[in-house]
Amino acid sequence: MIRPWVLISGASSGFGEASARLLAEEGWNLLLTSRRHARLNAVAEVCRASGAEVHVASWDIRNRKETQEGVHALMTEADIHQNRTGLTLTALVNNAGLAVGKGPFDAGLDEDWDRMIDTNVKGLLFLARACVPFMTSGSRMVNMGSIAGKQVYTGGNVYCASKHAVDALSQAMRIDLVDRGIGVSQICPGAAETEFSTVRFKGDQAAADEVYRGFDPLLAQDIAEAVSFVLSRPPHVCINDMIIMPAAQASAHHLHKKDS
Ligand code: NDP
Ligand code: 8X3
C-alpha cells in the first residue's frame, strides 16, 4: 500500500500531536512542524513506531519566508527519501494557533494581539499558500477553527476575531480551490483540554486548570478523530464545516459546570 502524505502544523502538542499519532496508525506518512524541535522529534518517534515515514522541521509560522522554505525543505526531504520527485501532498492540517490573554479589548496588549493575528490568520495563510503547489485534485486542507470563530464571548475579542477570520478564509479557500479539486474543511472545537489555556494564561497553570474544572472537556483525541473522519471521506464528499463541543457546553456562553 502507498501511504499518502499529510503535513500537520502545531504537531508538538494538543490536536496536532494527537492527529499525527492517529493518522500514522491509519497509514499516512507525515510531515510535522511547530517551533519546539525536541517535542516534534518525540512525536515523530511514536509515529514511526506505527510504521509511518516522518520528517520534521521547526519554524515559526508567523515568518513568511521560513514557512515557504520550510515546506519546500520538508517536501524535498520526503522526495529524496522516497527516491523520486514530485511527491503529492494529499492533506494539510492547518492547525497551529493560540490565544494569548483574555480580558477587555481596551486593556489588551499590542504583543498579544500581534501574536494571535500573526499566528492564527497570517500564519495559516502563509502555510496554506506554501502547500497548495504540492497539492493536486483530491487533496484536502483542514483548517482548525473554533467555536470562537462562530460566536464572540467575554474577553475573547481578538482571539475570536482571528478565528472568525479562519472561518471566512476557509470559505474563501474552498471557493478558490474548488476548480482544482482541492477540498477545504474547517473543524471548530469548543473547550478542549490541551496546552491551549496554559499558553493563553501565560503559564499560570491554576488559571488554566480552572477553565476545565467541573465538566468533562473535549480531549485532543476527539479532534484527531474528527480530522481522520474528514480526511477519509470518499472523493465526491467534502465536509465543509464541523462544530464539536463538550456535551456540557451548549454554546460559547453556556457551560454547565457540576458545582454551578
Ligand atoms: P496547543 O497549545 O496544545 O497546541 C498549539 C500548537 O500550535 C503547538 O504545537 C504549538 O507548537 C503550535 N504553534 C503555536 N504558535 C506557533 C507558531 N508561531 N509557529 C508554529 N507553531 C506554532 O493547543 P491546541 O492543540 O488546543 O490548539 C491547536 C489549534 O486548535 C489552535 O489553532 C487553537 O486555536 C485551536 N483550538 C483550540 C481549542 C481548545 O480549547 N484547546 C478549541 C478550539 C480551537 P510550538 O509551541 O512548538 O510552536
Ligand atoms: C478555543 C475554545 O472557547 O476558549 O478556541 O475559545 S474557546
Describe the structure.
With 260 residues, the chain is an alpha/beta fold. The chain has one domain (5-244): Rossmann fold, CATH 3.40.50.720. Helix content is 42%, strand content 16%. The chain contains 8 helices and 9 strands. It has helices at 14-25, 37-49, 64-81, 110-131, 157-177, 196-200, 205-211, 220-231, and strands at 5-9, 29-34, 54-58, 91-94, 140-144, 183-189, 241-244, 249-251, 254-255. A 7-stranded parallel beta sheet has the order 3-2-1-4-5-6-7, with helices on both faces. Helix 1 (14-25) packs parallel to helix 2 (37-49), helix 1 packs across helix 8 and helix 3 (64-81) packs parallel to helix 4. The N and C termini lie far apart (52 Å). The model has no long low-confidence stretch (mean pLDDT 97). Bound molecules: NADPH dihydro-nicotinamide-adenine-dinucleotide phosphate and 2-hydroxyethylsulfonic acid (8X3). 2-hydroxyethylsulfonic acid binds at residues 146-148, 156, 190-191, 196, 252.
Mean pLDDT: 97
Largest sheet: 7 strands, parallel
When the domains are counted, the total is: 1
- The radius of gyration is 18 Å
Shape: globular
Order of helices and strands: EHEHEHEHEHEHHHEEE
Which hetero compounds are present in the coordinates?
A: NADPH dihydro-nicotinamide-adenine-dinucleotide phosphate, 2-hydroxyethylsulfonic acid
What is the C-level CATH assignment? Answer: Alpha Beta
Total of helices: 8
Which sequence of strands runs across the widest sheet?
3-2-1-4-5-6-7
Distance between the termini: 52 Å
**Total DSSP E strands:** 9
Tell me what portion of residues adopts beta-strand conformation.
Answer: 15-25%
| CATH architecture verdict | 3-Layer(aba) Sandwich
| Helix-residue proportion | 40-55%
CATH topology: Rossmann fold
CATH superfamily: NAD(P)-binding Rossmann-like Domain
The helix/strand class is: alpha/beta
